[in-house]
UniProtKB/TrEMBL annotation:
<dbReference type="Pfam" id="PF04184">
    <property type="entry name" value="ST7"/>
</dbReference>
<keyword id="KW-1133">Transmembrane helix</keyword>
<feature type="transmembrane region" description="Helical">
    <location>
        <begin position="62"/>
        <end position="85"/>
    </location>
</feature>
<feature type="transmembrane region" description="Helical">
    <location>
        <begin position="21"/>
        <end position="42"/>
    </location>
</feature>
<keyword id="KW-0472">Membrane</keyword>
<comment type="similarity">
    <text>Belongs to the ST7 family.</text>
</comment>
<dbReference type="GO" id="GO:0016020">
    <property type="term" value="C:membrane"/>
</dbReference>
<dbReference type="InterPro" id="IPR007311">
    <property type="entry name" value="ST7"/>
</dbReference>
<protein>
    <submittedName>
        <fullName>ST7 isoform 3</fullName>
    </submittedName>
</protein>
<keyword id="KW-0812">Transmembrane</keyword>
Amino acid sequence: MAEAATGFLEQLKSCIVWSWTYLWTVWFFIVLFLVYILRVPLKINDNLSTVSMFLNTLTPKFYVALTGTSSLISGLILIFEWWYFRKYGTSFIEQVSVSHLRPLLGGVDNNSSNNSNSSNGDSDSNRQSVSECKVWRNPLNLFRGAEYNRYTWVTGREPLTYYDMNLSAQDHQTFFTCDSDHLRPADAIMQKAWRERNPQARISAAHEALEINEIRSRVEVPLIASSTIWEIKLLPKCATAYILLAEEEATTIAEAEKLFKQALKAGDGCYRRSQQLQHHGSQYEAQHRRDTNVLVYIKRRLAMCARRLGRTREAVKMMRDLMKEFPLLSMFNIHENLLEALLELQAYADVQAVLAKYDDISLPKSATICYTAALLKARAVSDKFSPEAASRRGLSTAEMNAVEAIHRAVEFNPHVPKYLLEMKSLILPPEHILKRGDSEAIAYAFFHLAHWKRVEGALNLLHSFRMIPYPLEKGHLFYPYPICTETADRELLPSFHEVSVYPKKELPFFILFTAGLCSFTAMLALLTHQFPELMGVFAKAFLSTLFAPLNFVMEKVESILPSSLWHQLTRI
């Protein structure tokens, strides 16, 4: 019985919603017709006359107060709407209207149970959104002591945010520590050092770890049987301590390279020892994994030092050897360092070979991959490309490939063209980037702007894509542009940098409406206060003009339907 009653109520509600959705105009005219027919018993004319007399007796001060109050209220609404839009990215009035009025007008409730059929698709899109907004280690990150700190000394600004440095500390603890660090005193000290927030405390801990290793230990095993000659050996050096000093204490790249070479000597020895013992248990396997990460990090940073110091060919060789020795370690994205170095050498055939391996549909994309591929294809046509000539004769196959490559790159990260075209100033790239975000665009343009300038006409070809088409965010070649990039980029980039936002948020209609209403009512209040008589004449003329068509229609209807019709209907 209850189910039948519930079903009847649902059908009644659906009928009412349907009638309101499609027949509201008919209802409106029916109500107007009834009001007109009942104008005599309802004494509408008398009431209108009374209201007219009352309005005529009002002084100009009342209208000043009325318009001033309207201006004040609309101004308060405008301030609230603007604050809500800046904080949440949407209009409060629009959100309330969609949430509460749309179901009454027959709209679809987004939270209804009908969404169960598309739960798999929603979960996939949510999973993709989380993946798209994952923060990645910047493969081209600078050196803190030799580059970031020097910027701070010169400008007095901090180029790195606390959030960015905290992510780096987490990376260091993941790559450079393991559960057995407490067995070696130096590693135990470094395990605490990576968690320190104070840079000076970290540097002091690194020096302490190195001092411990200077203590000689006598091994209770003779070198020769039945001999009194004892072996004297040094404890193994702490490679991670040298890494920390090279990253944070060294004030020049040359000093950092010197410390990294000492770290390489210590790290290579630890790696070889743990490689022999890795199959003896899970503890040794964890040590070997840690030592592998340390060795790869050191060699990669040494290659970056060589690149900074102008020894680009040496850097390329080191990166190639590293990728050949550890082909499965893709977390450091060494191929992006290799691409940048090869572009500096203008070895475009080698760049194409690297792209052929890493620009694969199964591998994660990056701005370096997409824009480098676009640069190579633009290089083939940019020196002879002319928009006017292309519009007359059409695009050739090579030009079409270049345009499609640039379109693909711009769709992946729409922030990059602003920096490559120098429409927006660059800052030092952060230590972590958000793919498809402003942070990734800064990191890419910081190192690759010179390569684009070197290719004649490449920036002119890119200039045609400076205005990003709005539908691009829907996703044609990639997933739709994630909405979480702005929040993450604001955490990664310093406060003095204006974060690039895409798509640009348009002001909601209700903000523009309340702004216009506030300005209009304030102007009316001012004019009424200054010129009360003149504004009264204008108001009467405006109202008479506004109601002239209505009076004309009412006179025509009066001639067809006289006022005595109601009395005649009551007699019937």
